[in-house]
Amino acid sequence: QVQLVESGGGLVQPGGSLRLSCTASGRTFSSYNMAWFRQAPGKEREFVAAISWNGGSTDYADSVKGRFTISRDNNKNTMYLQMNNLKPEDTAVYYCNGRTPRLAWGQGTQVTISS
Fold first, then answer.
1. In a 10 Å sphere around its CB, with 0-12 CB exposed, 13-18 middle and 19+ buried, how is residue 72 labelled?
2. What DSSP designation does 2 have?
3. Which of 30, 31, 44, 76 has its CA 20 to 30 A from that of 23?
């Protein structure tokens, strides 16, 4: 079973950048289509971005398109989310999981955008 650990969150000002990482245990990470999700206070968890198992295909929520970039390094069992031009509405706990989220959720990483 793949276990997921998210990191890289923090407090940044609007317009700033962050890079999140999702590190997976297990040797099957490279076979999964993966995704980032986020959950803001009082809201349901929502899809942010996805990447195919080999990195050849990506997909983004409209709200982050053009600002966020998803990538992965299967040799390192790690997926990334580069977030630029961050806005207060990006404030949330960010999680990674399979594109269809059937893996156990990690603890997430808090991203707070505030001046």
1. buried
2. -
3. 44
Residue type, 3: Q
> Over 80: is that where the pLDDT of 61 sits?
yes
- Cβ within 8 Å of residue 102, ≥6 positions away: none
Tokens 């079973």, residue? 1
Its sign, for the CA torsion 65, 23, 47, 15, is negative
Cα of 90 vs its chain's centroid, Å: 12
27 pLDDT higher than 90: no
Residue 25, helix vs strand vs coil: coil
CA 33, chain centre distance (Å):
13
CA dist 29 and 52 (Å) reads 11
